[in-house]
Design a protein that fits this description.
about 55% helix, 30 strands, 48 helices, single chain
């Protein structure tokens, strides 16, 4: 008997409540669902009948598998019965097994179809309806569109409307784009429960009241969120700058400058309103960076790196500012109002199509899948007016009584229509919803993950709650390594801002496997520094991906050799999109002797045999088409070569078809003339036959007359080619069975299918059950598991082309269109368009995170992540450290643009990751263990690279590679470079940074020491003890600690002293009670000195100033001669801290506190003039404001001394 975890057991046994089962990947949700059904059917008391349970899945395969599992479980329960089942229960279970074929276990659409066939009479529906195929519906849709547009053009009033819409949304070739747009509006609106109501609401959103404020509109929030994310990216760039700029003294002086700019971006990233962002960004101005010509080589490299990052931040800022804040809020609002008539006209046309298309389908008694859902909703909904609340119909109430339990599998993939249908047939406490929001990846099919997410956040975990949530987080599929890696990535990446939910303790995966296999996770970063071209070049991208394919092939060969029992069928390669890249993988893997299989999507009409037959059909329909005709003549059907075609073309002017009879008459009879004569005769027969026969019959005759079906059967992959031709015949037959006729319309139908992406996959020879490495998309892999998973192309940027469409849609934000200027014929986005764009980008990014989660959790034992290091850009090659740097500062995950952007920060957060910066990419993997991650930097040489290396290599290169002398004389230019001497040697032996105190010591105390040495020699004579005199530098040795310590405490007290307060003693008492001063400091704290200062005129001047700085730090660049006369032409970084700086009459006053035991003002001036002059120079250089006075306050003399 299976052992259930506590959450699994609670999910199985819960009753009389709506239950959301949040089942993580590999948590056994299907087993739980089946066990719950079995227990409901076999529990004592009142067991359910299987006809009282509704199970809804999203694929026919899943429904069939569920039915099989339930049947197997019921059979097993009867076989294992040892008398525990009561006789009546056993009899009941046997009945359920017999009733299983009639159980309501089906897809959503199949359930809707059942409802319609049962309650068809309630909505005047013919029960003999047919669920039409995609191709038939596409033809009908196009016909209705063309008829509708023609009718509008012929109507005087409507013609002006549709002409304007075509002007805005069409192109110079016609109104096809407008037709496509109407279809998009139709399709998207039908993902909403009430399509026409949603369209009306979308139109009404453009009628803004005059009192509307931008911050209060729903479209401003996603824009503000997106702007904040981009400004956060700028903050990350400045974090990198701050790390770099402190590495050299030349650049370190600009730290405060960059810090100030970073703080402005931080402020923007923390602003939550449109008006606040606009105000802040309007104040942001970038000053010009100084030249680096006086920097040393290391500083110049850092400065260029810093400049590049700052330019990126400037570019982001400029794009945000120009896109959103260069236009006033009132202009944005006016743009919405001005677009309202266009929006209304567009929706009116869409509604007209909606009505005409539904009537056309009704006339043929056709339904599509959307109709099944919406008509089912009509059956289940009580009559209502637009905007009224939804209530159940008598049919819905009957179904509420029928179904005691409603189980929905993959609930995260439902939409609003399906959700409402389930609510209408539920009794309010019998929904069992199973899914995982982290695996919701079908938004492109108009699934709505927010339905699951809302319940996930609001349902209670309390046992007795009416709406309860249970989390299944124990993963029985994956090894500890895979689970740890998944948790690390998504603990970083999955946040409220990035994915709409946080990846906390409830969302993490927990180990459930009982075996001891540890598993492994690898990360291979393939270097592209040797690649030619630019990143955005598609050919270069494929070339880089080919490098990944070679790495994958090598690793598969190594794993199959190393791991006992590992077969090719245990390995899968996952791609975000398989277009083109699957072909590259197949080619590289097969070249390496690795059998592979990729299920192709589309491309059927591009295979050679189908292209030839469609070209022949086009010629039969209209032979005056040169390109199709040339293809047929060049093919094996006729057998002409290029030279013959050239001869024919030169025979006469006009169409190639006209040249054929002219050529046969003009030329001497030869093989070409005979072939052409036969072809013309055959074409005449086919064209005559096509006028009285259907397309399918015409195809069959072509196959029979030419034996082309047999011909392709003898070619390589013959059975697949024959299957492709047979599929074309079947497609033509279905076309005619749908009531369509004519060769021309069939060819137009094929052209429309190719244009709209509705295509078949070519026939395959290898099946997925064979021992092959499988290549598939992440979407296709959902629900599957594999011992070894390769996740490739992880550096690929997410596709955002959909955001360039002329119209955007969102279920909550409506329809976004662009403003149009008919005079200049330009368009620009409205606020609604931009709001939908940014919201959709955020939701798409969240879905990309969920796709990455699905990909990583397919792995049972090993996960191998592969990506490219795009180090080369614009002709320059970045170091590995520079390539990795953006991820080391842990950028906010909502700025991620690729899977690597979410994988790399957790990897680089591991101890020892800095070792990657100095690693050299190698051909064979040399792994660096970073936590659970095995990271390898790879260098791959493809055949293309090898050929270029060989052609450029010579004897000296091979000698260098072999490590032997080349015998090449040293060139003069090289000798000069290697013999070069730095002109300022003194600068190389001096420090690049000095404090003001050090400069003062060098310039003053060194002179004092020299004078004392001279006096010592002069005053000591014969017989005198030269050591009886104590020099100044040793005179106060016994007092050094107490004197310096007392001075430090005095400075600290003046830092905290409030010169506005009268009573110093109370301040001191408070300092002591607050722990500001230690007991040791308390002993030397002189309240009398502080009181004397507080009553001085200087303290009064400080108190009167509106701008006061205490302990003011600074760093400036000064000429090195100031402290080191031997060095010329150099700069040194001077740092210091000014005790007090305040502004008086618009100018600065510098104050330096001194506790020296000097008795005369002149002594203070002599000792500290250098120090105060450096302070003065620093303040004036930094602030650009004159220093009025530089003062010393002596605590010994109780005097203010002017320097």
């Amino acid at each position: 008997m299976m052992t259930w975890t506590k959450p699994q057991s609670e999910a199985i046994k819960s009753r009389n409540q709506n239950l959301l089962l949040a089942a993580a990947a590999g948590s056994g949700k299907t087993a739980v669902l089946v066990e719950r059904i079995i227990q409901r059917l076999s529990e004592s008391g009142r067991p359910l009948d299987i006809t009282e349970i509704l199970v809804v899945t999203f694929t026919k395969a899943a429904a069939g598998e569920m039915r099989e599992r339930i049947g197997a479980a019921l059979t097993k329960k009867l076989e294992e019965d040892d008398g525990a089942l009561a006789d009546e229960v056993r009899t009941h279970v046997e009945q359920q097994l017999a009733l299983l074929p009639a159980a309501s276990i089906s897809t959503f659409h199949a359930f809707c179809q059942h409802v319609l066939r049962t309650y068809f009479y309630t909505i005047d529906l013919d029960p003999r309806f047919i669920v039409a195929g995609t191709e038939e519906l596409e033809i009908l849709r196009q016909t209705v569109l063309e008829d509708l547009f023609l009718a509008w053009y012929e109507d005087k009033e409507k013609a002006a409307v549709i002409t304007r819409l075509t002007d805005i949304f069409g192109n110079d070739r016609g109104d096809d784009r407008l037709m496509d747009l109407i279809v998009q509006i139709y399709d998207y609106s039908r993902s909403q429960p009430w399509p026409t109501e949603w369209l009306h609401q979308a139109t009404a959103q453009y009628d803004l009241p005059e009192t509307a404020e931008l911050d209060a509109l729903p479209w401003g929030k996603p824009i503000v969120t997106a702007v904040k994310a981009r400004l956060s990216r700028c903050v990350s760039l400045y974090d990198e700058i701050m790390t770099e700029v402190v590495k050299t003294t030349d650049t370190a002086v600009y730290g405060e400058f960059f810090e100030a700019e970073r703080n402005l971006f931080r402020a923007g990233a923390g602003t939550d309103t449109w008006s606040g962002l606009r105000l802040l960004l309007s104040d942001l101005k970038f000053k010009r960076l100084p030249s680096s010509k006086n920097f040393d080589m290391a500083a110049k490299e850092i400065w260029e790196s810093v400049r590049g990052r700052r330019d990126k931040a400037k570019k982001i800022f400029s794009a945000v500012n120009n896109e959103y804040f260069s236009v006033s809020p009132s202009a944005w609002l006016s743009g919405i109002r001005e677009a309202a008539p266009v929006m209304k006209a567009l929706v009116d046309l869409a509604e007209a199509f909606y009505k005409a298309y539904n009537e056309a389908k009704k006339e043929k008694n056709w339904l599509d899948f959307g109709d099944l859902e919406h008509l089912c909703l009509r059956v289940l909904t009580a009559p209502r007016s637009e905007g009224e609340a939804v209530g159940p119909s008598p049919a819905a109430r009957e179904l509420q009584k029928t179904y005691k339990e409603i189980l929905i599998d993959e609930y995260q993939d439902t939409n609003g229509v399906q959700e409402l249908i389930i609510d209408l047939i539920s009794n309010g406490c019998n929904k069992f919803m199973v899914g995982d929001i982290k695996q919701s990846i079908y938004r492109f099919r108009l699934a709505d993950p927010t339905l699951f997410l809302e319940k996930y956040k609001t349902y209670s975990s309390h046992t007795g709650a009416a709406d309860r949530r249970i989390d299944l987080a124990t993963n029985f599929r994956s090894t500890p390594a895979v689970i740890t890696a998944t948790n690390e990535v998504f603990s970083y990446a999955m946040t409220e801002n990035a994915a709409g939910m946080a990846y906390g303790d409830n969302e993490k995966l927990y180990l459930g496997r009982a075996d001891e296999e540890a598993g492994s996770v690898e990360l291979h970063l393939i270097d592209n520094a040797a690649a030619d071209g630019e990143e955005e070049d598609d050919a270069v991208e494929l070339d880089n991906f080919e490098r990944q394919a070679h790495v994958i092939a090598d690793r598969i060969s190594e794993l199959t050799a190393e791991v006992p029992g590992l077969h090719y069928r245990d390995i899968v390669i996952l791609l975000r999109a398989a277009s083109q890249k699957a072909d590259v993988l197949l080619r590289v893997l097969r070249t390496a002797g690795i059998p592979a299989f990729a299920e192709e999507k589309g491309g059927y009409f591009d295979v050679m045999e189908v292209q030839l037959i469609t070209a022949l059909l086009a010629c039969i329909d209209n032979p005056c088409q040169d390109i199709p005709l040339a293809a047929v003549l060049r093919s094996p059907m006729v057998g002409l070569d290029e030279a013959a075609l050239a001869e024919i073309r030169l025979t006469c002017d006009g169409w190639l078809w006209d040249c054929l009879p002219a050529y046969t008459k003009a030329s001497v009879p030869d093989t070409h003339a005979d072939k052409i004569t036969r072809f013309l005769k055959q074409m005449d027969a086919w064209r005559t036959y096509s006028r009285r026969a259907g397309v399918a019959d015409l195809l069959q005759r072509i196959y029979d007359d030419t034996a082309y079906l047999d011909y392709v059967g003898a070619m390589k992959n013959g059975p697949a080619r024959q299957a492709n031709l047979e599929a074309l015949y079947e497609r033509a037959r279905q076309y005619e069975e749908a009531g369509f006729r004519g060769l021309f319309r069939f060819l137009k139908f094929i052209e429309k299918m190719k244009k709209s992406g509705v295509d078949l996959a070519p026939a395959q020879l290898l099946g997925e059950g064979e021992n092959v490495v499988r290549i598939m998309t992440i979407h296709k892999s959902k629900g599957l598991e594999f011992p070894v998973v390769f996740l490739a192309n992880t550096e690929k940027k997410f596709n955002k082309k959909d955001m360039q469409a002329p119209v955007l849609f969102h279920k909550d934000l409506g329809i976004g269109i662009k403003s149009f200027d008919p005079k200049w014929r330009i368009t620009w986005p409205t606020l609604i368009y931009n709001g939908i764009k940014e919201q959709t980008l955020q939701e798409n990014r969240a879905e990309e995170e969920r796709l990455l989660y699905v990909a990583m959790t397919r792995a049972k034992s090993r996960l191998v992540v592969v990506g490219s290091m795009k180090r080369k850009s614009g002709g320059t090659v970045k170091s590995v450290a520079d390539f990795l740097a953006p991820w080391r500062h842990t950028p906010r995950p909502e700025t991620g643009d690729s899977y690597l952007d979410w994988i790399m920060p957790p990897v680089l957060a591991q101890a020892g990751s800095l070792m990657l910066d100095t690693r050299i990419p190698t051909e064979k993997p040399e792994f660096l263990q970073l936590g659970i991650w095995n990271v390898a930097l790879r260098s791959v040489v493809t055949g293309k690279d090898v050929s270029s290396v060989i052609t450029e290599a010579d004897r000296r290169l091979f000698a260098v590679q072999a490590g032997i002398p080349t015998g090449t004389p040293i060139p003069g230019w090289l000798d000069r470079i290697l013999s070069w001497q730095y002109a300022y040697k003194a600068a190389t032996r001096t420090t690049a940074k000095l404090s003001v105190s050090e400069i003062k010591r060098r310039l003053y105390e060194d002179e004092t020491a020299a004078a004392e040495s001279k006096r010592l020699i002069q005053e000591t004579g014969d017989g005198d003890d030269p050591f009886a005199y104590t020099p100044a530098w040793l005179a106060e040795t016994g007092q050094v600690r107490s004197g310096i310590f007392a001075g430090t405490v005095y400075h600290k007290a003046l830092q905290y002293l409030d010169v506005h307060a009268a009573e110093v003693g109370r301040q001191v008492t408070r300092w002591l009670s607050d722990g500001i001063f230690t007991d040791e400091e308390k002993e030397v704290l002189n309240i009398a000195d502080l009181t004397a200062f507080s009553k001085s005129d200087l303290a009064g001047r400080i108190a009167a100033s509106a701008e006061v700085y205490r302990e003011y730090p600074f760093s400036i660049l000064l000429d090195s001669e100031i402290a080191m006369p031997a060095t010329k032409g150099e700069k040194i970084l001077v740092q210091g801290v000014i005790d007090c700086l305040f502004k008086e009459d618009g100018k600065w006053v510098i104050v330096d506190y001194k506790t020296d035991h000097l008795e005369e003002e002149a002594a203070f001036r002599k000792r500290y003039t250098v120090q105060l002059s450096l302070y003065k120079r620093a303040v004036e250089q930094i602030s650009g404001i004159e220093v009025k006075e530089a003062l010393i306050y002596s605590s010994r003399l109780y005097k203010t001394i002017s320097i």
